[in-house]
Structure formats: structure tokens, C-alpha cells
Amino acid sequence: MRGLPRHNLQSDMPNLLDLHRLGTRYWLLSTAFLLLLAACDTVLPPPTVTPGATLSGPGIVASPTVMPAVPTNIDFDAAVDVSNPTAAALAPDSAMPPIIVGTAAASGGSTAVIVTAQDGTALNGLFYQTGDGVRRPGVLLLADDIHGWADFPTRLHNAGFTVLVMPVRPQTMLQDFTVMLGAMSSGEADPASLAVVGAGDGADMALLGCAGDKLCDTVVLLSPSNNLALVEAINNYNPRPLLLAASQSDTGSFASAQSLQAAARGEVLLQPFENAGRGTDILLNRPDMGDLIIQWLQRQIGG
Fold this sequence. Notes:
This protein is an alpha/beta fold. It has ten helices and nine strands.
């Protein structure tokens, strides 16, 4: 027919082949999608748990120096030097006896000793002991000067007492007292029979210390001060026996001795002097006062 275009079948064949290929691909993709949807309805078994690495926060860089912790409660047996038989033989919480640092004097029988204070200070004293292993009544002498007692410690020792002579440090009275009395009771002295004799500042130290320590069986005070703390301390010391001595010329000390005598609730004796000095000077000026003290101690704690 004239006027109509003539189709070239040969030129249209590639287009038909392309359409066939696209249809095939579409069918494959559709089939795969349907299979995937079918798989979603299938219940799969839970996965097997396998231990993995444990997570943690950032690590702390170790200190280059290891600082050992200081124990707050040290076992006594572990701390005692086993090479020291005296220390090793002590029971827990016991005080060390006076450490001998000299030889006994031929004249008076005293031995130079050291008692270590709580602050580590080595306190020099004199020790009078028989050395036969018998525990005798003990007397602790307290004064500013350990040599100010003259021959009184020897007289005490000859009367049957173990005697420890120690100095006074006003700023550490109570701490030193505890160590000194503990040293006396752990040495040759009988801890059940202990007396303290104080002169001057030592008198204050003796009463203040014994007020808080039941090891004291009796106290002798030579020239106590007029410190109000002594009147308060006597209430804690009561009703144990008390011996006092003071010179009337030492008005403050004499008034204090009278106040303590009035506050005492046990056996008490006040020995007044008109003018015998103060502290250990009383024993030098009035040797009979030494005899009175010895008789008092023998009656109170033996000897």
C-alpha cells in the first residue's frame, strides 16, 4: 500500500530480545524476594554464647614505689626482740624494766639506769636493788634532781625496799609517770606493794599520777604546790593513805598540804616544820623526816 511506512523486522529484533531479557531478570528477582520473605517466618535457634573479653575502665598506672601499710595493732610476741630474754619474758602490755647502763656503786649500791619515755626520750635514773630475785616492796622517788635525795635512797634500800630514783619533766609529768611506775612494777619490785615519794615538782607528779593509777598503794608528798589540780586529784586518790610534809615558811606549799589533809578520806598525816626548806632540802635539814617516811612505808607496804 502506497503511503504507509514499511516496518523493518530485522531492525526491531534487538528490542524484542532486550524485553525478553528484562522479563527474565524481573522473574528471578521476584522469586528471590519471595524466598527471602518466606525465610523470615522461620524461627532460628539462639546463637551459642561464647565467652569474650571483659571490658573495664581505664587502668590506673601503678606507683613506682610500693608503700607498705603500717599495722595499727602489732602483736607483742612478734615485736619483741627474741635476743633480749628480759623483754621476751614479759607478758603483753607489760612495761620494760629499767635498763641497766652502769655497775652498782660500791658505797650506795645504786646502778645507773635508763627508762625510755613515751616520746622516745631516754630518762636517766638510779636503781637500788638487791639482785637476789626476791620481789621486795618498791619505792619510786621523784624530784627535779636525782642526786638531791643525798643518802635517803640508800637508807630506803637498806630498810628492805627496791628503789627507783627518776627526774621530773614538768611538761610530760603524767606520761612519764606511767612509764616510770610501769618500769618499777616490771622489775624487781613487788607490783602489789608500791609507793611513790615526790618532792617539789615531784610531789605534784606523784599525786597527779597516782590519782589515775591504782598500782600506787601510798604517796608521800614533800612540799606540794598550791595547784588546784591537786585538790581535784585527791578525790580520785582517796581513800589510800597519804603522808604530807611542808615548811610553814613556804606559805603556798603549807596551805596546799593543809587543803589536801582536809580533803583526804583515808589515813593521812601532815608533818609541819617551821623552816626546814623545800622539797628534798627537808630531808637534808631534818634527817628525822627520813626516818618517819621509812616507818610510814613499812607500815603501809611492808619492807
